[in-house]
Structure prediction request, 289 residues.
Amino acid sequence: MNGRAPAAIITDQDRAMKNAIEIVFPNARHRYCLWHIMRKLPEKLESHSAYNVGLKTAIMSAVYDTQNAEQFEEKWGQLIHNYDLIDNSWLQGLYAERSFWVPVYLKGVFWAGMSTTQRSESMNAFFDGYVHSGTTLKEFVDQFDNALRKKVEAETTADFQSCNQTIPCVSLFKIERQFQSLYTNAKFKEVQAEVWGMLLCNPSLVGTEGSISTFDVLEEISTPDGQSKIVKYIVYFNEDECEIQCTCALFEMRGILCRHAFKVCQMKYIHVLLEKYVLDRWRKDLKRR
Prediction:
């Protein structure tokens, strides 16, 4: 990458790879694939009598519903105690390496929306139909060029559509219109998902200190069992600088402002966001190299 080391790396829990990354890329933020870890829950814990009557839900809540390290530590400690898992070696290992996979420890690092290795594993799909187990090295080189050409053509088509086809706004929210004019269609759809999510958010002003106002934003979230729960997020708004930050850290991790921040912007009658919240990597008016 032009002599620049990657800032963030996602892998599975391979020990050799972890050691190599520490040596070769000492300044990179390394994380484990969350999907690979969570899919092991049944294998490792399904034999527990309470797995389907509280334990699984408690683990999911500790991992996904906590907003900071203190909350995670508290919930993790409670589930270990409540379900008598203090001697479970697998959970002990996960806890020891919690900074590599638990979302609250990974906030503040830009991951472009990735928390799993599935995108890197999609290279299988990239070569699908071009190479197979019997492909020679010479054939691979030729087929690689063909596969790459197809990918470039697909990206060119997507760029053309972004520049010539406009996705309608789903609201009268002026910030949505700002992103409609600037972002590629694919990324704008992600912004729209957050705009839709505003419907389930209820903000309230907690207090103001100087130019900074603090809001509690309660969001109703659907659970896998068809129920719903209320999760609280905290949004900070700097009136003087017109800067906004949410404890969900969606912008810091994915480069898109969250529904909680949008809801506060709506409440404060903010109609245009600062340029710092519009990332060049998602813009459709910039030429790609």
Q: What stands out?
A: The longest strand covers residues 212-222. Residues 137-164 form the longest helix (28 residues). Residues 174-282 form one domain. Residues 169 and 176 are 7 Å apart (CA to CA).
